[in-house]
């Protein structure tokens, strides 16, 4: 089925008249970054409903796409991380977006928009909501950016803080794919971490290091903090102040773990093989 949102060469149709995908990506990033900065500075207020999510999307992408803020009329599938034997998983069919949105945001409203919850209850509820909105995927492009601003504002209104800046693209894709399969554990783990100031500080420090010190683009790495009681095996990358970084050898792919330096045995150096059970995170 043809996609009405793209030119013949596959580039998204846009207000700028740009038909080269790479150029469009650069121009889009520039224009949407400015709009996002304005939104964040002004703040987003309740109610947190589907109309608000659509308005956020419209404001972010108004300079680039005619359909900014409007639900898609085509079907979307997520193919990342699927084997050749699997069919790409489909987001909510376009014909069902409005009905699903009514259910999702209606439940959010009835639940008091996550206000009055303990930290643990908030992170679980926010993770469930994230997975549902992501599976809805109401827009042809730009769902992630709109969702993050919406959820940040929702969290702030409920008395919590979220730090999406410490989540790499690789991790966000993995959580999204798992959510499409009905697995919300990755999202719950993510929201626990990005709402914990100690973990956020450790992840920011690690990302600062990786952005300048590795040949692998930092956004292409799955990076997370350790969990108390869990055992990890891999190679020690380095230590800094209260934290250590290790490359964990694990299927289906290696990933970067950030832990509390107090968990490490003595006399270790970068490059050493390491087996450790986390206690402090």
Q: Any descriptors?
A:
281 residues; alpha+beta; Fic-like fold; OB fold (Dihydrolipoamide Acetyltransferase, E2P); 2 domains; five-stranded mixed beta sheet; 8 helices; globular
Describe this structure in words.
The chain is α+β, with helices and mostly antiparallel strands. The protein has two domains: 175 residues, Orthogonal Bundle (Fic-like fold); 77 residues, OB fold (Dihydrolipoamide Acetyltransferase, E2P), CATH 2.40.50. Helices cover 43% and strands 12% of the residues. It has eight helices and seven strands. Strands 3-6-5-4-7 form a five-stranded mixed sheet. Helix 3 packs antiparallel against helix 4. The longest helix has 22 residues. It is globular and about 60 Å long. About 2% of the residues have low confidence.
Provide the fold topology.
Elements: H1 21-42, H2 50-61, E1 77-78, E2 89-90, H3 97-110, H4 119-136, H5 143-157, H6 169-180, H7 185-194, H8 197-213, E3 223-225, E4 231-240, E5 243-248, E6 255-260, E7 273-277
Parallel strand pairs: 3-6
Antiparallel strand pairs: 1-2, 4-5, 4-7, 5-6
Helix pairs in contact: 1-2, 2-5, 3-4, 4-5, 4-6, 4-7, 6-7
Summarize the model shown.
The chain is an alpha+beta fold.
Number of strands: 7
Q: What separation lies between the terminal Cα atoms? A: 49 Å
* CATH architecture designation of the largest domain: Orthogonal Bundle
What's the number of helices? 8
List low-confidence stretches: 80-86
Strand content: 5-15%
Query: What number is the mean pLDDT?
Result: 94
Q: CATH superfamily of the largest domain, called what?
A: Fido-like domain
Would you tell me the structural class of the helices and strands?
alpha+beta
């Amino acid at each position: 089925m043809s996609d009405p949102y793209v030119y013949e060469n596959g580039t998204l149709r846009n207000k700028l008249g740009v038909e080269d995908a790479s150029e469009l990506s650069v121009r889009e990033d520039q224009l949407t970054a400015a709009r996002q900065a304005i939104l964040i500075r002004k703040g987003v207020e309740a109610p947190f409903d589907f109309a608000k999510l659509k308005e956020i999307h419209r404001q972010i992408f108004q300079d680039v796409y005619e359909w900014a803020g409007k639900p898609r009329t085509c079907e979307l599938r997520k193919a990342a991380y699927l084997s050749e034997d699997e069919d790409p998983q489909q987001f909510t069919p376009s014909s069902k977006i409005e009905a699903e949105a009514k259910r999702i945001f209606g439940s959010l409203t009835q639940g008091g928009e996550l206000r009055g919850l303990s930290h643990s209850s908030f992170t679980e509820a926010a993770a469930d909501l994230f997975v549902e909105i992501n599976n809805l995927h109401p827009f042809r492009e730009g769902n992630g950016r709109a969702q993050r601003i919406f959820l940040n504002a929702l969290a702030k209104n409920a008395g919590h803080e979220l730090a999406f800046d410490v989540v790499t693209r690789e991790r966000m894709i993995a959580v999204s794919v798992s959510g499409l399969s009905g697995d919300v554990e990755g999202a719950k783990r993510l929201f626990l971490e990005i709402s914990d100031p100690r973990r956020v500080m450790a992840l920011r420090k690690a990302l600062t290091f990786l952005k300048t010190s590795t040949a692998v683009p930092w956004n292409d790495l799955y990076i997370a903090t350790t969990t108390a009681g869990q055992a990890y095996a891999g190679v020690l990358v380095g230590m800094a102040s209260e934290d250590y970084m290790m490359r964990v050898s694990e299927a289906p792919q290696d990933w970067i773990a950030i832990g509390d330096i107090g968990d490490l045995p003595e006399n270790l150096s970068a490059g050493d093989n390491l087996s450790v059970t986390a206690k402090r995170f």
